[in-house]
Amino acid sequence: MAQVYLASASPRRAELLTQLGVSYELVLPNIPEQRLGSEDPEQYVRRLALAKARAGEALTAGDKPVLGSDTIVVMGENVLEKPLDFNDACRIWRQLSAKKHQVMTAVALVHGDLEQVVCVITEVEFAHLSESDMQQYWDSGEPQDKAGAYGIQGLGGQFVVAINGSYSAVVGLPLHQTKALIKQFIQ
Ligand SMILES: Cc1cn([C@H]2C[C@H](O)[C@@H](COP(=O)(O)OP(=O)(O)OP(=O)(O)O)O2)c(=O)[nH]c1=O
């Protein structure tokens, strides 16, 4: 029997859980990703992770903990989410180009009355992106489903000059912190 439910459609999160040696069963809740006016980026990413875990739990028999997670790319107070189209991706990349930004990943575990959320913040420094870099990267098909319109684990890795924090958190789940959280719920 699986140890947790994973409330995520992200193949990267599933791979990272497998890397941790945690077995899972998928549940797929549908949570709208819309920041409230009063929320700062960290409150927003924490709320979404918890909402995914809680909504996931409502789809289960409540027999094991549910893990939900969310990743956002933050530039100052701006949250850069998944690109809507090529123009939107260019708008995002122009903000990231030749600067440092933060990637915030929140992980929530929920089981009945027990709820825990952790948020891991990683600083990522981007290289300058030329117009042709942007066109070629878009054409690769990689940025479309990714927060901040890049994937550090794929072609997008070529734009990353430096990283300070957790590489796995940027990809989708901070390995160390996720394992520590799961240990609190499973003996
Ligand atoms: C910055 C960055 C993001 N991403 C991904 C991680 C997340 O899957 C995605 C951010 O979107 P999320 O909304 O966090 O996750 P998701 O929609 O893929 O899956 P679900 O909500 O069902 O759990 O962007 C990378 O894969 N690499 C990166 O370098």
From TrEMBL:
Site positions per UniProt: Important for substrate specificity: 12, 71, 153
Pfam families in UniProt: Maf
Protein EC: 3.6.1.9
Catalytic reaction annotation: UTP + H2O = UMP + diphosphate + H(+); dTTP + H2O = dTMP + diphosphate + H(+)
SUPFAM superfamilies: ITPase-like
InterPro entries: ITPase-like_fam, Maf-like
CDD domains attached to this UniProt entry: Maf
Cofactors (names): a divalent metal cation
Active site: 70
Record's keyword annotation contains Flavoprotein: no
Keyword entries, A-Z: Cytoplasm, Hydrolase, Nucleotide metabolism
UniProt-annotated location(s): Cytoplasm
Function: Nucleoside triphosphate pyrophosphatase that hydrolyzes dTTP and UTP. May have a dual role in cell division arrest and in preventing the incorporation of modified nucleotides into cellular nucleic acids.
Family indicated by similarity: Belongs to the Maf family. YhdE subfamily.
HAMAP family: Maf (MF_00528)
Name of the protein described by the UniProt record: dTTP/UTP pyrophosphatase
Organism encoding this protein: Motilimonas cestriensis
